[in-house]
Amino acid sequence: MTAMIERNTAAAEAPVAETSQEQNLRMRATRYLLAGLRLALGWIFLWAFLDKVFGLGFATEGKNAWINGGSPTKGFLSFGATGPFQGFYNGIAGAAWADWLFMIGLAAIGTALLVGIGVRVAAVAGGLLLVLMWTAVLPPPNNPFMDDHLIYAGVLALLAVTNAGDTWGLGRTWARLPIVQRFGWLR
């Protein structure tokens, strides 16, 4: 009886050979999932840009919109920053250079991810921006160290290493450009 149980257990644990059709289906599903994540993150970055520029009433009220003279960094960095870097972030809150860098970053990262070009550069820039945003609120309110900023940064890295701009994007066309072929990090 014990020998029969051991044989059945061994058979159940043995890897099942996957057909090439199953492999292709899984690879296609993975590409589509990664493309969907790329588009979703691209929209998150671009939406933050649009809301801060026009004050669409989600995170930014109209009176605080950038086009109405508001600062995209002043409110959060002045009143939302906590932890060991609070003084640093309070010090740059509302600085014109910080506003411009932040807004250019949001627009460029969002656009690159949505279009599927320069995903590696967007992933590095977006990861840096997200880690900086994470350090502005240390420790996170609901966990000793982990929050959505770090998860998004990890997803951006995954998108970069898997060429996620190739599916539902212009990544393949972009990759054929001579400058991108010469400097692969532009991919």
Verbal overview:
The structure is a single chain. The chain is mainly α. Helix content is 65%, strand content 0%. It has helices at residues 2-13, 20-54, 74-80, 86-92, 96-115, 119-135, 148-161, 171-175, 178-182. Helix 2 (20-54) packs antiparallel against helix 5 (96-115) and helix 3 (74-80) runs antiparallel to helix 4. The N and C termini lie far apart (59 Å).
Task: Fill in the keyword field for this structure.
single chain, mainly alpha, 9 helices
Taken from the alpha-carbon principal axes, the silhouette is globular
Low-confidence residue ranges: none
Number of strands: 0
Report, as a whole number of angstroms, the end-to-end distance.
59 Å
What percent strand? Answer: under 5%
Radius of gyration based on Cα positions: 22 Å
Structural class: mainly alpha
Q: How many DSSP H or I helices?
A: 9
Pattern of helices and strands: HHHHHHHHH
Helix content: 55-70%
For the report, how would you describe the main beta sheet? none
Mean pLDDT: 94
